[in-house]
Every structure is written in C-alpha cells, then in structure tokens.
Amino acid sequence: MWRRRSLLTYRYLAPQFRPPVLSFTHPSTNVSSNIRRRRVIPPQFHHYNNPFFSSSSSHRNDDDEGFVSSSSAAKEDVEAVMACLLNFGANAAEARRRLESCRSVAVNHDLVREVLSRVRNDWSASYTFFLWAARGGHSHGAREYHLMISILAKMRRFDTAWALVHEMNAMVTPHTIMILVRRYCASHDVARAIDAFYSLKRFGFKPAVDDFHRLLSALCRYKNVPEAEQFLLCNAGSVFPSETKGFNIVLNGWCNVAVSPREAGRFWRHMAARDVARDAHSYASIISCYSKVGCLRDVLKVFDEMKLCGVTPNRKVYNAVIYALAKGRRTREALDLIQLMESEEGGNIDANTITFNSLIKPLCTARQADDAWTAFNQMLRRGLTPSVQTYHALFCVTRTSNEAFELFNRMKQMGCPPTTETYTMLIRTFSRRLEHENVQRLWDGMCNDGPGPDRSSYVTLIHGLFLNGRLEEASKYYQEMKAKGFTPEPRTDEMVGAWLDGKALLGKTKGQPLARMSHGHQKFGDYPKPEGLQGMEFHNTHLYESN
C-alpha cells in the first residue's frame, strides 16, 4: 500500500481456452521459419515499456536527451576522438594527453553530438571532451549543452550541470530546465525538482501549463506518484487550469507505474467528484491497469461502460483491450477486435506497431511462439516497423544462442539499433546459461559499436561473472565501474568485498581451511536482478504520444 508523504517539507507547495494458431487473411510469409517453430520457456524479463503508451516510431530511450547518431560528422574525425578517449576510466591522464595532441580533428556541432552520444555513459570522458572541443574556437550550441547537461545530471553531477546552464546565458530555454527537473525526479529528489521547476522564473520564463504537465509526467515516470498527485491537487484550479490532461498523467502514474488498482480506482472516483471529464486517455489508463493485474472481467466492464458514456475508443484503448484479451489467452477475440477497430464501425483505426506489440508480448509470455511469430510476420507484411519492445518480447522465445543472435542481427538490419537494455537483457540471459563467450561477445559489441555500458549493464555483467565462477574478471569490471563514476549496488559491494576478503585470508593461511565468514553475503548462484532495471516495467507516462 502506498504511503502518503506530505509535501509540507518542500519549499514550494502548491472463461479461458487454448487458442488456435493465429491465422490471417493474407498468405503466410515466414521471416524466420527456422525460428518460429521452436519454443522455449523464456527467462522472465520485466523491463519492457508499456505497449500501449510507447511510440512505435522511435527507438530512443526517453532518458536520452536527443542522443541520435549524426551521419554528417566525419567518420575519421569521430574515430580519432574515440581512440583518444579509449579506456578513459582506467587511465584518464593518458586519455587527456592523447586528446590534447589530437590537432587534425575538425570540431563542429555534428562531431560533438556524435562523440557525446557514444560516450554518454561516462560523464568524465564526456565532460573532458566537451571542454576540449570548446578550446579551439568552437562555440557549443544549445543542443550540445543540453546533451552535456543531461549526461551530468544523469550521473547526479548537478552542480556542474547548473554551471553549464548559467554558462549558456541567452541559449537557456524551458527545455533546458526541464532536463534537470526530470533528473531530479529520477533521483527521487522531489523538493529540488519542484525548486528547479520554479527556477524558470529566474531565467525569465513563466511556468506554462505544458511545463506543469511535464513536471507531473516526470514525477510519475520515476515512481513519485503520491507527490505528483498532491502537487496536482494543490495547483490545479488555482495556479494552473484544472484540465483532464493533468489528471490523466497522475491517473496513468497510478495505473501504469505504481500498477495499483486500488489507488487508481480511488483517483478515478476523485476525478468524477471534481467534475473532471474522463476521456479516451483516461479509460485507456484504467483498462491497462486492470489488464496488468489480470482483471480481464474489469477490463471488459470498463470498456462497455466507456461506450455507454458516449466516449469513442481511440487506438490506445483498443491496444489496451487487445493486450488484456491476449494476456487472458483469448487470442481469437483479440484478433476480432483488431478487425473491428479497422472497420467503419470501429472508427477506421489502422493497427500500428504498438497494436501488434500488444498482441505479441503476451503471446511470448505465454510461450505461444508460433502465434507470436505469425503476428510478427503479419506486422511486416503490413509495412509496419518493429520497435525495440517487439524484439525484446521475441528474444524470450528464442531457445539457442544462434536463434538469439539471428534475431539480434535482424534487429540491426531492419533499422532498429539495439539499446543498452537489449544488450543487458541478452548478457543476463547468456550468463544464466553459463555461455561466457557469448556474454563477452555482447559486451565487446556494446562497448565498441553499441551505446556503451551503463550502471545496470555493469551490475548485470559482474553478477553474471560471479555466477560463472570468473571472480577475477568480476573484480576487474567492478573497479572499472567505480572508475567511471557508477555507484555499485550494496549487494554487488558485498559479493566483491566478501571474495576479496576471502582471497586475502586464503593467502595468509597458505592452504589452511577457510573459516565461514559472517559477511551475510548471498550465494554466488543467487543471481539478483539489478535495481537499475526495475524502473522499466511498462513505465511510460507520455500519454499523449502520437500513434
């Protein structure tokens, strides 16, 4: 049960059956026939974005403020800079010396954005390069400042980030401040998030309704839903208009972040008591909440109530109901609903990538691999581009490493670059299977050609190495993680510390029996899930993304 925390301490208060194999009207075209007939019990992964509320056209993590590779940057110059920054955490002084001697590089905006995008998980290397790039007469633009501020704030280097904000002068926009607001929310420092929000006035901006909604969205996204609700109720109707959109953001927080039907129902009734109109977005949130906890009966009840109230279902509502039906193993009814939404009676709403994700993910969770691959093939025949969430679901029904890497390569070939979460998920899978060569292959790919490792990646790798008995390597990556400024989890500290203590004691005893240590650490085989991945369970409060 969610405990209500007061904002007074803050500076500013204001019936089931086995479904048949999916059949579509179009002739079948198998994309991967050697995969789709195989089935396996997949490991449980919990970090998919909400299939109803995530964008199908974008593969970018919302935490990455505009980190998009720039094809305009000269490849030779980018590679030269990256070579200088190589192993920055292990030997920062040597990396800085190499960078200072790199005089042939033509610094421009594209180069800065590309390099920052590649090293964004190493704040020290990013900041060193950012300062170096400005020494030769190059002036950073607002976008480069935003990228650097986002990197620093993500690593909680807020003082340095604020220094850059003041350095920007006239280039500061409300978006600049909202980057810091989101990162304060991510670190659960609600007081400073609200303080940063009101600092808009100090930079000559009046907080607008859209900024207010962005603050609520950031609070909810990072599980500060009680605070978001209280801030909404203190300001809606007095400082800001009492609009449905603001209430929908908090409702979505209770429904899809907290996933609390009790609190969602309470807030749903509160909206009615305040005469706040409930629109299709409101119904989509409450329906998805019930579907996640397996209350299919309530999903259908609210769906019928919505139509009786004269609210026309939109694509988000249909996607939520399709997900609930597929999760309840009523696949045929889910397919019928897709046909209904595309008919004139249903509003002529075309199924999109998110619609098929709503169907594919529960099929993969239910180990219905054939049906999932059939839906995937139908999705491709319609000309829809699979998203990261599509592939993450399908990875769960791959049985062997060859199947997983075949899908991984297809993902890249189809213009959907793997994210850090993709690499982390696969590293965790192969670590459980004791396939260390594949783990190292993925790690090298992520470091050399991918987005680079983050805190969760390091924690997953270290725990996987312990699981595989590679303790020396685990200790090496543990030191590398700390050198890059990532804070290890307490459990990781305990594991590595216990091993180092035991190693030192073993050296002293020279082969004598090692006494049981009382560190309270867990067995190496007890392979926990990193905390950094727990905030990724269907979390997306951007309720108004275009479909």
UniProtKB/TrEMBL annotation:
It comes from the Eukaryota. Keywords: Repeat. The keyword Repeat applies. The keyword Nucleotidyltransferase does not apply. PPR repeats lie at residues 279-313, 314-344, 352-386, 454-488. InterPro entries: PPR_P_subfamily (IPR050872), PPR_rpt (IPR002885), Rab-GAP_TBC_sf (IPR035969), TPR-like_helical_dom_sf (IPR011990). Belongs to the PPR family. P subfamily. NCBIfam families: PPR (TIGR00756). PANTHER family: MITOCHONDRIAL GROUP I INTRON SPLICING FACTOR CCM1, PENTACOTRIPEPTIDE-REPEAT REGION OF PRORP DOMAIN-CONTAINING PROTEIN. This is Pentatricopeptide repeat-containing protein.
